[in-house]
């Protein structure tokens, strides 16, 4: 009888120990899964974010102050070099509403273009802006909407060398600007291009 009771006690103890270990393992797994879920909600994977930026045609932020050959400096721009302005467009994240300084003003024909990047990827529609001097062998006369042209600009990955269709053409003054994005990014230097219609006096 005593042996039977001892055996029953040992079996009970083993069952309890097994449940305890199983519960602890399940609890740890649950905690880990919960932690992963929270991290997934609050801290997206960086590689995915970078991939999305690339897929979306992320523009280069700062650029060279070097100008295309033949580009003429504006003689009487609405916003002279050194003027502080507010940008009213959103070509890039953090641009709209940002305070900018005019780094250059030029008279030219500006184009909105659509093209497929030479590096592959989705077609880019209505990219703003490319200027006449950034088109390969474009000649002297402005191109009309619907015309085809090869891009010499490299504002975005896969742009240079791509064949583009002109969506919009406008003779105007274009500006190169320096600014700090409103979303807290690094300062941008020599951003090309914005038009006077996209700027307002500070």
TrEMBL record:
<dbReference type="InterPro" id="IPR011438">
    <property type="entry name" value="DUF1541"/>
</dbReference>
<dbReference type="Pfam" id="PF07563">
    <property type="entry name" value="DUF1541"/>
</dbReference>
<feature type="signal peptide">
    <location>
        <begin position="1"/>
        <end position="24"/>
    </location>
</feature>
<feature type="domain" description="DUF1541">
    <location>
        <begin position="145"/>
        <end position="195"/>
    </location>
</feature>
<keyword id="KW-0732">Signal</keyword>
<feature type="region of interest" description="Disordered">
    <location>
        <begin position="24"/>
        <end position="65"/>
    </location>
</feature>
<feature type="domain" description="DUF1541">
    <location>
        <begin position="81"/>
        <end position="132"/>
    </location>
</feature>
<protein>
    <recommendedName>
        <fullName>DUF1541 domain-containing protein</fullName>
    </recommendedName>
</protein>
<feature type="compositionally biased region" description="Polar residues">
    <location>
        <begin position="24"/>
        <end position="40"/>
    </location>
</feature>
